[in-house]
Structure to design on (728 residues):
């Protein structure tokens, strides 16, 4: 998907964007093919709307280049771009009726009145809103306004249609229906759609290609199946669907150890005994009563009926909690055996094995990093002021409820459950991420104090 | 008895009684008196002579036409000066805008007679002649805030997404203005027009002070007649003006109702 080809209608190259000194997009590279349905997916604040607004021309990129239909349009104002947008809250003109809302763009292009009428009627048919021409837009329901907004955009026959969370304001049932209609429209029109959403299910249902973003950085680009089955890191695995994410060790090619057991897998190319993240989707674990055929076993702690399947939590004797989905129900308290097919075990390279910060030596027992001076047990006899790399293990960082108690203050920004512990990301006041493992339960957005124990600070000379 | 009193004051509807009384005594009764006086002759009998007198009195009719002219020019000048000001204010970030809006509104806190006297002094200081020019200046100066505020109010509430939508559909900056921003601000414009045009017709103090009583507006004629004890003729003139004001607000009926609904009016 990344290589530049003649078929790409939009290419985004090394685009970065900042509001003031806050970077919201970092080195974005993306290529969108003619007729492709691309979804930009990510949690709120990941920069997906900013990326869409850069493509639409409502923002000018701080850095990088955006090419649309073969010409450099990085600085082109929105009215000269061959793209049209469906806005999140529709943005229909309240002083115009349905017909004149849709005809707005065509009138600006000085298209003859009878052709405008024909084209408006045509798109009204596509969005199944025939006979609504004379209606005041205020009198329409949310779903109808949405259709008019889509009609107003596609009547201009753009090369690319941008949709900014177009279904966010609709209720669940309506959303499902509109998803299908949007997909059908895409097929009929044959133009590229760029669809921005935070709803992973929507992304998987609609797209040819999903772009997963987090904190202004693209995490993974792939087909829905690739994103779901082969997530590139624990963030993607956690964000898309339900998953068990566990720490593991790659013993050798096609053999991985996690949750206290060794499993056959299909992944190769890792170093011997390399620590890895293992992802298993809950529906890929087989549960049964016979324990002798099991790869590992555990006791059901909870079982909830979810409509099609039961969602059960299993605790293994080794102390790992695993989520399992199955059509058969097992009651809480039952002991079950479990199996996983080698191809259903997704092994991912760990993004990092410990925290790494840049620091400077203060004296023989202190080092300065993260805007603070820390005591440390060994400074390797380095001179004061030497620039060093500081490594801190995930397990020796302590969080406090009371912000004042720690040496640093921060906010819990991401939580990942690893079966027997939580892996937390804490964003400090200095805008640096600290990663740590804990058994305590914290919430996203909790303000915390952070302390680092002297013996866990390891110094490496640059 | 005590219980009855409590019930009486407990009904929210009854709280409006003091104001209703006030309204009746000081608005409804005087209006009725104006109508009665206007159709009453010197002898106390019914007549339409007062109106005949007005129509035959060329000077009075000319003054009325002149007053309407002054009101129209003032309104147009206020609109031409006020719209860009309101537009620029609405584009500012809210903290700076509210300070600037305050500066625009500030003169309204001072009594307009004092402001007008200050204008006279200013013209004297600058050695500018008083007269028609001074009159228009005084009118515009006094009524400009009434034009700016409702327009600013509407523009500031306009969804910025609508402007982006217009750009997205291919509108140049000028087209964005004439096809979205301007039509969307019509309720603010019409409420501004009402709030400037109607009071200007009946203002006499500004004319008196800024033209040293050389130019008479309809309000002046009215005031002179009443002052000189011509109650019946004065009432007829008042009625003519009331009808005129009612007609202007009827012309604006659709948009002014909408403007009131959207908070365009102050």
């Amino acid at each position: 998907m990344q290589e530049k080809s003649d078929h790409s209608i939009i290419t985004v190259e090394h685009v970065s964007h900042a509001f003031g000194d806050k970077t919201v997009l970092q080195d974005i590279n993306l290529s969108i093919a003619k007729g492709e349905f691309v979804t930009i997916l990510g949690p709120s604040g990941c920069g997906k709307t900013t990326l869409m607004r850069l493509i639409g021309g409502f923002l000018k990129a701080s850095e990088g280049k955006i090419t649309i239909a073969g010409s450099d349009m990085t600085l082109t104002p929105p009215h000269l771009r061959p793209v049209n947008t469906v806005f999140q809250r529709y943005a229909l003109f309240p002083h115009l009726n349905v017909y004149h809302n849709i005809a707005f763009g065509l009138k600006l292009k000085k298209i003859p009145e009878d052709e405008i009428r024909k084209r408006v009627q045509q798109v009204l048919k596509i969005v199944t809103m025939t006979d609504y021409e004379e209606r005041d837009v205020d009198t329409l329901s949310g779903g109808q306004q949405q259709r008019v907004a889509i009609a107003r955009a596609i009547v201009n026959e753009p090369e690319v249609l941008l949709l900014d969370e177009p279904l966010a304001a609709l209720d669940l049932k309506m959303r499902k229906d509109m998803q299908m209609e949007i997909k059908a429209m895409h097929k009929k029109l044959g133009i590229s759609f760029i669809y921005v959403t935070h709803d992973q299910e929507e992304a998987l249902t609609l797209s040819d290609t999903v772009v997963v973003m987090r904190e202004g950085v693209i995490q993974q680009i792939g087909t829905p199946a690739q994103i779901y089955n082969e997530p590139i890191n624990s963030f993607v695995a956690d964000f898309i669907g339900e998953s068990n994410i566990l720490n593991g060790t790659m013993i050798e090619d096609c053999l991985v150890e996690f949750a206290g057991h060794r499993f056959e897998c299909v992944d190769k190319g890792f170093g011997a005994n390399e620590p890895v993240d293992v992802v298993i989707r809950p529906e890929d674990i087989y549960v049964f009563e016979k324990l002798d055929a099991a790869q590992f076993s555990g006791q059901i702690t909870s079982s909830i009926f979810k409509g099609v399947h039961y969602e059960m939590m299993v605790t293994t004797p080794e102390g790992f909690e695993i989520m399992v989905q199955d059509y058969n129900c097992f009651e809480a308290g039952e002991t079950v055996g479990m199996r996983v097919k080698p191809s259903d075990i997704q092994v991912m390279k760990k993004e990092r094995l410990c925290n790494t910060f840049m620091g400077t030596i203060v004296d023989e027992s202190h080092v300065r990093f993260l805007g603070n001076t820390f005591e440390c047990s060994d400074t390797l006899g380095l001179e004061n002021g030497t620039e060093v790399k500081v490594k801190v293990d995930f397990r020796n960082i302590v969080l406090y409820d009371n912000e004042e108690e720690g040496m640093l203050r921060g906010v819990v920004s991401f939580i990942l459950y690893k079966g027997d512990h939580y892996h937390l990301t804490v964003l400090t006041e200095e805008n640096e991420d600290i990663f740590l493992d804990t058994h305590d339960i914290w919430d996203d957005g909790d303000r915390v104090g952070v302390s680092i124990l002297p013996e866990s600070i390891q110094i490496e000379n640059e | 008895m005590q219980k009855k009193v409590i019930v009486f004051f407990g009904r929210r509807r009854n709280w409006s009684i003091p104001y209703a009384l006030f309204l009746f005594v000081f608005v409804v009764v005087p209006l009725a008196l104006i109508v009665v006086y206007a159709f009453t002759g010197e002898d106390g009998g019914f007549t339409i002579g007062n109106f005949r007198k007005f129509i035959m009195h060329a000077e009075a009719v000319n003054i009325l036409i002149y007053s309407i002219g002054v009101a129209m020019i003032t309104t147009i000048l206020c609109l031409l000066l006020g719209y860009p000001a309101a537009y620029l204010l609405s584009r500012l970030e809210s903290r700076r805008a509210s300070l600037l809006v305050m500066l625009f509104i500030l003169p309204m806190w001072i009594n307009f007679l004092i402001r007008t006297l200050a204008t006279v002094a200013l013209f004297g200081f600058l050695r500018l002649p008083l007269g028609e020019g001074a009159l228009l200046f005084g009118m515009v100066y006094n009524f400009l805030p009434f034009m700016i505020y409702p327009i600013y109010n509407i523009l500031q509430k306009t969804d910025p997404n609508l402007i982006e939508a217009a750009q997205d559909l291919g509108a140049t900056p000028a087209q964005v203005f004439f096809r979205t921003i301007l039509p969307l601000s019509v309720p603010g414009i019409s409420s501004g027009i009402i709030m400037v045009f109607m009071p200007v017709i009946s203002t006499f103090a500004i004319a008196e002070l800024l033209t040293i009583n050389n130019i008479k507006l309809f309000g002046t004629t009215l005031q002179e007649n009443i002052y000189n004890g011509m109650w019946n003729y004065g009432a007829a003139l008042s009625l003519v003006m009331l009808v005129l004001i009612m007609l202007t607000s009827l012309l604006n009926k659709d948009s002014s109702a909408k403007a009131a609904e959207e908070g365009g009016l102050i």
Summary: Helices of chain A lie at 48-56, 98-108, 113-126, 142-154, 172-189, 200-206, 224-229, 234-239. DSSP finds eight helices and 30 strands in chain A. The CA atoms of residues 142 and 170 of chain A lie 7 Å apart.
